[in-house]
């Protein structure tokens, strides 16, 4: 058993309070949601044994009269202090203990309102003292005046408690609202114990003396905890626990309670919240603080809690033993100093590129991208004759009827892109193998298929409007209204009457047969005008959507490598290669949409279906998402701030969409991996981040477990799309925040954006802002051909192995900050030129012309 030395002075109180604090720190360090209830159960099985053995020991504090008489006891033990606790009081305290344990088992967050219990207990203690006129003042004047002012003055004590509570919850009280429940329960517990020491009883309030009633209290606690475990198993199934860790945690809890009770016996139970607060603030990881202010705040709260402990055990004496309690401050100062040291070392590593930034992969890729972008602008056709020639050259076929009218519309509206619409033709061209009549027939069959969940939309040339119908739904997610809004004012006769299918779901739908089959009609299950519909919602789809990846295809793509030297870090240099499922089969387990999508109704065959986004191996025809036109995703300049005023970090908040969690594989989903990385949730031995440094002109790799959390402001604000057990596990694992304002991202210089169940509706808003978008996606979108990575945004690979180095370079180096600013301004300027509503209209206009030709009944199959 850990004891504060010297052992012959064990009754001097410094021993028990120091030991209680140490075991509380150990408890916080070992605690986990999975082991909470089991360890608490073990704790209350051990406590009666500990107290029984203590009463038999000659070192018992209660038996050491000389020692006890030398201590300043703020509460006189009166006639009622020895009265046995009533059954109702025991059950009330036992229930409160169970409530606190259940909260800790269900929520990752600590009891953030714990510091407020100190002033509340001071108020309770004052009430108990006033019931006996003979009771002495609870704040003897012999104590230092500063300590009395800080810890015994109710208004000041409340202010300190509020500051500590705000610090523990990260200044997000709304997200920690449920923590009020265990806080109230803890107040009941400590006040009941304090009431046992009061001279007179206050009716209608529990009164339990822990040391005297532990043998009666412990069985009640055990019964309630067993009931909680049975209920937990019936709802969530049995959870696998680490038995050694659970045993150590249970023992540490029991010892913490034991020494805390012995301390409170001769001081006050006000010391319990102080010890608990110290334990919480002394145990966060050295790299978990999100900002310097948060780190200093935790340190300040820790010192204040320690000061309160010293204040409550103060006694006038020549002994110098009490100040040794301040040595516990090392537990708080250590992580803070380590954080500063490692963070500065990481910054100095990044600064090795100072004066030679041109050798960093970010700079190399940006220069290459600028050449590509200038070529894109320079090669657009200036007249229709050139546009016609370019169309024939690219696609080896004549353009659809009406393309000249489209060209005139694009030129009149100053479209910067005239020729680069390969995405449309590449999606439509496989369907040209069918005749126009076959296309119309397969569209009708797909729409009428049970469970297809498709909208059949009709464009009227005479009226210039689009109407959509569904077999069972009434709300079309603004599909028709978006087409009507975008094509309003267009000379309708230039687009013929046509029908088209639109996917209702976020997830893509179409898997084309292998493009290497010489005759698509030879496919055993797929023939022209036929398709297979398979509902794979909530199931892994990786094998299904990559089954047409062939060795020939892989070989043809093998040569598409970047010339950029990045020391093995996957900086994205070619979007098509980075997102290619055939090239990166491991992507099937790293993206929630592929690992286990929420909804996925796969249509295999040649069926023209419009979707807002499509995986590289799939054949959906992409069109501008109506979400980009909704009010929620509109950019407002007055809600943004200048670059210089933005926080120098990367920001993202959102929900855990992207995949459906039914087992532990959710840890591999793309959103969960990103948040876990940014929140430093992996154990140090599991973290292997790679950074780059320049040594003698050569770029070298540096591997470290360090990730500077102050450069990331990332959190989930909603967790769903999971079974009960997995939702619970994610709540326990992540630091979840309350809802935040939709424009909060603009307070940061770097804004992260990634796929959900489908495309992200915030992307265009980020491009329009004065912040730099960091974009991770596997989905093709209509705008891909006009947005150039490293010029308009910063691409991030699905593995995110390069993200720590990327964020470090863009935030901690002068050249990186300047590059990030340039990308933000370039993206903002290009958004104003190429992602206007009229650019949506130009794209849809051309898309409808291709679809009209596709279903022309006079067209023969190619």
Automatic annotation (TrEMBL):
It comes from the Eukaryota. Keywords: Membrane, Transmembrane, Transmembrane helix. Pfam families: Glyco_transf_90. The chain crosses the membrane at residues 75-103, 109-128, 149-169, 175-193, 214-235, 241-259, 293-313, 325-343. Residues 571-858 form the Glycosyl transferase CAP10 domain. InterPro entries: CAP10, O-Glucosyltr/Glycosyltrsf_90. PANTHER family: CAPSULE PROTEIN, KDEL LYS-ASP-GLU-LEU CONTAINING - RELATED. This is Glycosyltransferase family 90 protein.
